[in-house]
Amino acid sequence: MKGAFRALRHRNYALFFAGQSLSMVxxxxxxxxxxxxxxxxxxxxxxxxxxxxxxxxxxxxxxxLAGWWADHADRHRLxxxxxxxxxxxxxxxxxxxxxxxxxxxxxxxxxxxxxxxIALELAVRQSYLLDLIDDRDxxxxxxxxxxxxxxxxRLAGPAIAGSLLVVVxxxxxxxxxxxxxxxxxASILAIRVERRGGRAxxxxxxxxxxxxxxxxxxxxxxxxxxxxxxxxxxxxTPYQTLMPAFVAQAYAGDPRLLGWLxxxxxxxxxCGSLFLAARPHVGGLYTLLxxxxxxxxxxxxxxxxxxxxWLSAALVAVVGLAVLMTTLPxxxxxxxxxxxxxxxxxxxxxxxxxxxxxxxxxxxAGALAEALGPRLALACNGTLCALLALVLLRWRAxxxxxxxxxxxxxxxxxx
Length: 415
Description:
By secondary structure, the protein is an all-alpha fold. It has one domain: Growth Hormone, Chain: A (Up-down Bundle). Helix content is 83%, strand content 0%. It has helices spanning 11-42, 45-72, 75-98, 104-132, 139-167, 169-190, 205-218, 220-235, 238-251, 255-277, 285-305, 309-337, 343-356, 358-372, 374-393, 396-409. α1 (11-42) packs antiparallel against α4. The model has no long low-confidence stretch (mean pLDDT 83).
């Protein structure tokens, strides 16, 4: 199998892809429902920022530990455990909402539990993909298809959630997510992987963490890529958190409009991931991600200023595309050049800086939106991101020069 879908020729990866595709739809259905339910309970934009903060804070705190663990433990068992426990979390949300007992603090607590489990899952997943394919040349396809799967979930999930919220409420959304985990767990149980050599020697925890941080900091390209990822997380991704307040205040919209705007963002990201999945190598990706970071900022600022639903819909799709074209190239480049025995620890830093640092941006954006309104908050964030993209552009030549020996070592093309 050639092109974007070549990784699906591997049985284990095909099983993983099928199960996780359902999981991603359920996850986004739950996320949209939880945000809308929180806004209904509190009528506060700050509460939306706080929900995102407590949900993603465990990712910031636990991702390095999860990466160290994944470099030393059985990744298949860790993945199975994380998925099963996420199913339990979804079931708890369902029971509380169906019985009418749910309160904001329940959403905060269960959100933080899910964040801790996601920190483990993502740290494991980055290296687990290597266990699922038999030909390392298909790794870029597997990484891009996994991202495509996530973006397809972002496209379908919010649209489904918008309709379900109107018809059956948040409980129906939580029920759908809980059911998807049956298929997820079954797919992982069907996977058969061999324990491969090359795992990092079991070093003391603090020494292992210090080794991973030091490795990432010493190498300029890795450091710059991680900085770009963190900036997009802090400045751009809070638009998803603030979307319920934006829809309600700017357009007096209902859950359907919320779902479709988020789905269009996912559609833009889906297009970007399919484009990257079809690329045969990582050549040109650093320039692409730098350009995309600037576009993401400008599109978000324009989205915030738009007074027309149709224009906002088009712009939010551009934001989704540009964010994906910034973040996925970071992943592709790092997966190509990072040493195998440090892979989980370095890739856990991408999780920490994208999903973990994001809580700070969500909290700040929520507070700013509470004081100035969601429009001005998003406009400020987008403008600042575009300016910082110009700052990072000045490092392009040096980053490419230092990447040259790293990519030559694995026979890839220069990003």
